[in-house]
Structures are given as structure tokens and as C-alpha cells.
Amino acid sequence: MFKFEIHKKLEGALGRAGIINTPHGDILTPAFVTVATKASTKALTPEQTRDAGVQVVLANTYHLYLQPGDELIKNAGGFAKFMNWQGPTMTDSGGFQVFSLGVAYGKEISKVTTITDPNFLIPERSIGTEAPLAKIGNDGVSFKSHLDGSLHYITPEKSIEIQHNLGADIIFAFDECTSPTETDRYQSEALDRTHAWAKRSLEKHKELEKQKAEAENSQNLAALPSLRGLRHGQDFPNSPRLPQALFGIVQGGRSEELRKKSAEIIGAMDFDGYGIGGSFAKEDMETAVKWVNEILPEEKPRHLLGIGEPEDLFMGVENGVDLFDCVGPTRIARNGTVFTKNGKINLMNAKFVNLFEPIEKDCICYTCTNYTSAYLSHLFRAKEMQGATLATIHNLYFITKLVADMRASILNDTFQEFKETFLKNYLS
Hints:
Elements: E1 3-9, E2 16-22, E3 25-29, E4 31-35, H1 46-51, E5 57-59, H2 61-66, H3 70-75, H4 79-83, E6 89-91, H5 95-100, E7 112-113, E8 134-136, E9 141-144, E10 151-154, H6 156-166, E11 170-172, H7 184-223, E12 245-250, H8 256-267, E13 273-276, E14 280-281, H9 285-293, E15 302-304, H10 310-318, E16 323-326, H11 328-333, E17 337-338, E18 345-346, H12 366-370, H13 373-381, H14 385-411, H15 415-426
Parallel strand pairs: 4-5, 4-16, 5-6, 7-14, 11-12, 12-13, 13-15, 15-16
Antiparallel strand pairs: 1-2, 2-3, 8-9, 9-10, 17-18
């Protein structure tokens, strides 16, 4: 029920256009995955998210585990049914929270930084004063809930159990996302943990999939006497959820040696696809992605975790990435910042107060078709919630269409021309 097929490769590069088949629909790749952290795209309904061109959404394992709880979501039929999303779904492993609630907690550290960041000159664990909410051990990670301070311990097995309860089509192995400011020695120690956790995640996933298959077979046999009353293709009553695909995650920070080592080890495991995670310096992200994708099996999909700037999307697609996710487009929209083909603009700027034109004249998203920049500027200045909704619709449409246009350009052999023209305008 999960399959990846490459339709066309990018000549002279690692990029490709393809399709991922999932139990709840197809994903045309490359594709941008919208983050629905708590089973919700912030400021939008699922219908508005779909209308913006989104194919697939990704929810956060850690946050849904804490609220409302993965068992409740299991009883609701999975998070897609819970939020009324009609399409493919993904969940992360909770590994990013190892970083965001650990060494990065209360500090101005991002997983993507620059080599000129002054944090590179400061010993990582001396930055900031707030005590971390996550502590790492070889068996797993202890978290203090950011909601009520309660203590939770997540192991690779626990992460997979939670993700099976959440019911996404594609799930991820538990990993340690490290800071870009960590030493090579610590990156190496964390990498060994990630590889051990990947093996344990895969074993637990196979165990749970086997249990689901056995339960389904048993239930189907029990239902045989009443089959006459079922329509063709109708599910058996209370049948188990459909099989889930598991992606392993490549780590290794900025080190070429560690990145290649991780790609070889994770690539040799029996995963359905691969995530490229961890930390990067903006200046060398391209080489790091290329190191990894030259090693990972070509016939399986690759997902670049937490990356969403237009220039980085072009880089990833050219170097063999099939899926991306990032909170960036929705987060900046809620602050009044929107994408245009000539770069980002902030609708709070004075020049938009009297601009009775859409954000982008040739954009056909719902926002640009119906509203002016002046109106959106008014909404943000007046602190009206609708401003965030309209800006988010535009940003999601812009970024999903951009990646869809990259796919089309691969298919019609115009990728390089499209890339050069877009970036010349966007970055000027």
C-alpha cells in the first residue's frame, strides 16, 4: 500500500520527479508537507489547507502525546480522522524536541545557522540559564512537559507505539537532533545513539505491523458469516488501521565523515524511506544533503526535515530530496510576512496601508483573488485573527505551488532555467 516510483530524473543532478502511493492517497513529488503540529494547520481549517494546494500534512508526536493523548486519538480513528483531513499524513518522531527542549531550550539557537553565528565560539552547554526540559540517555529521553511540568520518558519503542496510535501513513524513527554548535565528538556520540535507536524503532514497528496483520486476519475470519451483507470494498467493522511506512533518519551535523557514515548505516536498514535531519550551517547545507543522497538508496523517497525557505527548496530538489516540511510559511504569515516572487514583504509596513492591490497580482490563491494588501495590512494593525488566516492561505499556496512548479520543470526539462529566473527575482 506504500510505494515510490520515479517518473523522471534531473539530468546532471540527483533530483527527480515521482509519486508516493499511500493508503490515503498519492503524493506527487517533490512536495512541500504542511506542518499541522497539534492536528491543526494554525489559522486554517483542513478544507482551507487542502484548497491552498496542500497534499500531505505532518503532525507532531510529542505535542499530541501530551495533549490530547495518543490513546484518545487512536480511539478517534487516528489524527487524520480526528482533524477531518482527507489525504496522506505524516508524524515526526519527537526527535526534534530532544533539541528544542534540550540544549536549545531558552536559548537563541536554531537547527540551521550560519558559520558566522557567535554561538559557534561559545561552548554549547554554557549558553543560557534556563534548565533544559529534555535529558538524553542511551535508552531514551526524559521530558518535562512544557504544559504542566510532568515527567515523561520516551524511548524508540515508545515513540513508535505513539505514532502507531496516531495512525499516520508515514512515520519516523526516533532520533537525536543535535545542535549545529556541538563538537564533532558529541555529534559522533549522538550519531551512535541515533543508529541504535533506528534499529530499535524498526524492530518495534515490524512487531506492531505483524500484530495488526494478525488481528486483521483473525477479524476477517470471524466476519465471514456476515460478509453477504457487506458492499464490495467495504471495510470490515472495526477493522485495524492500514499499514504504516517507517522512515529512518540520517544525522551527523556538519561533518562529512559522520553524514556519510550515517547515510550508509541508515540506508542499509530496511526502512521504507529516509529523513535527513539534524543541524546545518546555511553555507554548507547543500553539500551535506548531496553527501547523503549520493549514498541513500535511489529507489526510496527522501525527506529533508524542517527546511522551507524557497532557495533551500530549490537546493534540496536539485540534490534528490522528495519531501520537505517546515513551520516557516505558516509562522511568518501569523506575523504579517508573506512570500512574493520578488521576496518576502511585511504587511505592517506603511506602504501597504493604501495599496489597493493584491499581495501578488498574478497569484490566484483565495487571498489574492479576493483581498487587497491594504485590507490585510488593516487586519494585522487591528490585530484581527482573519489577517493570519488570509496570509497563511497565501503563503501555503505560494510555497506548495513553487515546489509543484519545480516538479513540472523536471518533467519538461526546464528546471535550471526555472531555478535561475525565480531566484534572480526572489533574492534581488
